[in-house]
Amino acid sequence: MKRCLHILTGLLAIIMLADPCSAVGGKWTPQQLLQHDRQWLAELGLQVPPQDLWSDAEGGLLQAIVQLNGCSAGFISEQGLVITNHHCAFGLLQEHSVGERDVIRDGHLAQDPADELPGSTAVAIVPHRFTEVTAEIEASVPEGADDLARFQAIDRRKKELVATCEATPFRHCRVATYDDGLLYLLIESLEFRDVRLVYAPPRSVGEYGGDVDNWMWPRHTGDVSMLRVYADAENRPADPSAENRPYRPSQFLKIAPRGVEDGDFVMVTGYPFRTYRSLVAAEMAERAELYFPQRAQLYRRWMDIMESSVAADAAVENVLSSRLKGLANREKNSRGQVKGIERGQLLEKKRSAEGEVLAWAAERPEHRQAVAAQRGLSEAVESWRQTSWQRDFLLEQATRGPLDLQMALTLTRWAKERQKSDLERHEDFQDRRRDSLLRSLRRDQKQRHGATEGRLMEDLLQRFAALPEPQRVAAVEQRLGEDRSAPAIRRLAEGLLASSQVGDLDARLAMFEESVETLRQRHDPLLDFAFDLGQDMTISEEQEQRRLGLASRLRPLWRRTYEAYLGHPIDADANGTLRVSLGHVRRYYPRDAVFMEPLTRVAGIVEKDTGEEPFKAPDALLAAAPGAPESRWASEDLGDVPVCFMATGDTTGGSSGSPVLNARGELVGVNFDRVWENIANDFGYNPDIARNISVDMRYVLWTLEVLEHPRSQALLQELGLAGLPLGASSADRDGN
Ligand code: ASP
Predict the structure, then answer these.
(1) How far is CA 206 from the centre of its chain?
(2) In angstroms, what is the span from residue 693 Cα to ligand 1's centroid?
(3) Which residues are 73's β-sheet partners?
(4) 402 lines ligand 1 (CB under 6 A)
(5) Taking Cα atoms as reference points, which of 453, 474, 456 lies closest to residue 465?
(6) Region 14-29 average pLDDT
């Protein structure tokens, strides 16, 4: 197998430019993969023909790459088994951790189908077909439309296309927008709602290192879980039912038992959620100076509130842990973005690069429009910062804060949107979303802790009260009156929650079917507040739609010119669609004089273990660790079973759970994180520090054997891995 060893990577950037094995950024669509120069792909290390990965007519291996609960995942057996991260199945584990039974703590391995754990909100989306609809979308915009009308026309056309597409039974459709309108693709997928947990390691493996190690290297986290997708007797998506059978996917990934080594070529395949590389400098400044710092501060405070509830009563841990984990992940991410932008001087570099493109474009009549486009985008964000940014930020965050308020906002919005025709509603409240809204309203009960919601509410109201005067929101102002003191705000929070029925599951489910009038007649203080806050949100949303309309007009002009200036294709920002990123397993130099190897070992777990959470591995694992070098999953070169590996993959949030494939398209790992220095990768790829982190499949298989033997036999058999020879030599690995 082709390898690229770069002992001097990071120092010799010039050599790297000419070197096919250098780190290559880019989150490529399946179609772009086919457009890349074959020779270049082969030089990077790809051994399978690109059309085996994807063909618009026949699909390909990438059909095995699915989206699961907002994460990425991949089929790994012909019996519908998918692999993803442990943290992506955390909500499901929480659902089943009741009373004495704690599957978060203990993990779970189903012995037979009856033992698999259904996930009430788990959904697997399997890609089927991509059709470009850019011209059609553009044609829907009426002549002379202003930016709001432009947004609305595009939005409506997208919904019409989705409705037509979903008229075919069992389809899940979406019109995805790339770089605000450079490209629109209609993506047809199959949506499966019967998804059951087969395997999750104990938390002490799946979350080893916890928040301390999150976004860090070296890493020893076994962040994986396996779930099974079920279908009806005809192998079609179906509602959860005891009659369903394991889905037989058209493609599934085979595990490469011999894994990877330093320098090996890899592909990270998944659904990266959101990046900011297509932004102009002024827009990037808004993220760097306002959005990420304020998000970090807000989430830190909400974490403190939740953590103090857990400290006061340990039983609250399982109730709040999923939300706490999510907040901690985003809080650390936000700090990492700010730090990375500063350290890499990304803003300064962006301004200077942009200046060069502007000068280049100004001299070329065919690109002059791009100069105006860049100015238009910059002015729009400047004016937003000066007028309503603080208010809009807080209104957006209100939908993520106190759970009772989130639920009240869903109920009132759902009632209001149902007064309109389906195509006129906000896309999150169309009829096609009804079931998932209802499922979330039910599931959220398990994550609700009354006293904590009260304190979160108080914090949120304090923030609303502290907004600059011109940005204050009517819903809060009407209720606060003259007295803006802390006790008055506390009384308001208590008043909104104490006599509300929204926190009661049965009452809430009944409310879901009620009209605006009926909900109003309840005179529930929280519902009334949510109705009023909804009015403020409508104002803020309309302004956002104007900005999106403007961006859809201007950003494509700017991006086309940017591409022409560079003279080579660029990838669009991540948007939750299927992408492939190409890279190599590679070491890195995070700081002066510090060198980090790209693979960690089981021995490293023993070394890190303190016996205290989050560094407290299961006793059975620690006891087996000395024998790991002898196991069939050990790497000879490493002298141990590898645990995690780093590569130069171009990933972001949503890439969690992405299958990592070797040059032959075989599964070698499951992506779950990035290194700290690489968080600001969302704003630009830097080959020196762009490292994604994956669990090595050999560790997954070793822990299965060590912790679950002999119960793991059936699963290993299903994976085609029962009875492989012990150990693996480098010669075996290279011999293919
Ligand atoms: N840890 C991330 C996630 O949760 C993955 C990443 O951002 O690299 O999606």
Answers:
(1) 18
(2) 9
(3) 66
(4) no
(5) 474
(6) 61
